[in-house]
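Hey L., structure's done. Input below.
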Amino acid sequence: LKDDFSSKNWGTLEEKDDTVEYDGAALGMKVFKKNWFVWSTPDSKTYNTIHIEVTIKNNDGESTTAFGLMCDQETQNSSYYYWAITPAGEYIIALAADGKSDVFLTNNNKWATSKLIKHNASSYRVGADCGSSKLTLYVDGQRIDSVSDSTYSSGGVGAFIWSGENVSHADASFDDFIVTSLK
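Output:
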């Protein structure tokens, strides 16, 4: 899968707390509520053992806005793995399970900080390996962290934005999304 967002394949929405809409040749996501998570997916295909990448532009300048990638999304939409980074240089690799609290698989269930994530950059190239029970996060081509987990083995892919606990808005754009096989 390779998508520069010039065709409109991704899910869009416009609600009170969030919007996902095409913004030129990018997919824009906005959140209007504290600690709120919204995502979009390109299709209903099942992927396994893959590498995902996307360029994310931070449009709000807020250092606690988190954004990133998802994989192995199960039939119930709230079960998947995700990789998040913030412009403050923080990151997580996490497991979401329908009806349960998310588990951060990195740094003893807490956000971690990496000097390899440039602070307040205008954009980031976020990458993730997903498969064979190994989950790895990359930012701007550099490996940030890796964990092992075998809860999920295949599913959908997507991108997301997540507002901070003390901020009532978040705004980011996504471009140049790719999925390649790790097999």
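The mean pLDDT is 94. Residues 27 and 83 are 18 Å apart (CA to CA).

-- N.
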